[in-house]
Amino acid sequence: LAEEGRAWCSKELTMFLWLLQAAAGILCYVGAYVFITYDDYDHFFEDVYTLIPAVIIIAVGTLLFIIGLIGCCATIRESRCGLATFVIILLLVFITEVVVVVLGYIYRAKVEDEVDHSIRKVYNGYNGTNPDAASRAIDYVQRQLRCCGIHNYSDWENTVWFKQTKNNSVPLSCCKAALSNCTGSLTHPMDLYSEGCEALVVKKLQEIMMYVIWAALAFAAIQLLGMLCACIVLCRRSRDPAYELLIAGGTYA
């Protein structure tokens, strides 16, 4: 019965290791997604330390892949030392993922203040004639999130670009996508997106951070299951009479 129980746990552990390999790929994907999306919104969010959770999640994904290989070798060879190492490394990764969750919540709470601090400066630096990176970022965000201005399209009236152009118009990126004849003129406000971009940028960045938090929580739970299976296999292995006699220098017939 004990042998059957150990075999069952070993089988479950092997299945977990395959799941761990898949988890490694998913975690790396989540981290890469955060980096790519951050690149689109980085002008509205100056605190680069917000990327720390994404960096950690990619590092954890890479480490999980290596851990999976170690665990496979240890399970196939039924190495007690290998399984113990596997459990210890999993525990360290589990702690790291808890840190990711904590950092994710901290930076998620800071998003609104960061965006509010930088967004006015970005809009004031807009140059529609010869757009630089910041100007392209504004046009991208307004088209992507279907918004106009900081709180609404009237915010453009206070920008340097609006005062210089003197044509009573906002950028064409404020025009509703369904309209082909929109010129951005404030005399036709119904042609423009009515919602401001600040709230939508904050929402988008907070959603991105939640992806990291939920990914870390999900795989932390999976790792707990793996550590439990590995510990059971270790305990059963240490109680194996053949193993105990071998350690004592005896024989087992």
Automatic annotation (TrEMBL):
Subcellular location: Membrane
Membrane topology type: Multi-pass membrane protein
CDD domains recorded: TM4SF8_like_LEL (cd03163)
A Pfam family matched in the record: Tetraspanin
Keywords per UniProt: Glycoprotein, Membrane, Transmembrane, Transmembrane helix
Predominant subcellular localization, coarse grouping: membrane
A GO cellular-component term linked to this record: plasma membrane
Keyword Iron-sulfur set for record: no
InterPro entries listed in its UniProt record: Tetraspanin/Peripherin, Tetraspanin_animals, Tetraspanin_CS, Tetraspanin_EC2_sf
Claim: Glycoprotein is one of the keywords in the record: yes
Residue spans crossing the bilayer: 16-36, 48-71, 83-107, 208-235
Gene3D superfamilies: Tetraspanin
Family: Belongs to the tetraspanin (TM4SF) family.
Entries under PANTHER family matching the protein: TETRASPANIN, TETRASPANIN-3
Subunit organization: Interacts with claudin-11/CLDN11 and integrins.
Function: Regulates the proliferation and migration of oligodendrocytes, a process essential for normal myelination and repair.
Official protein name in the record: Tetraspanin
Organism: Erithacus rubecula (European robin)
Gene (UniProt): Tspan3_1
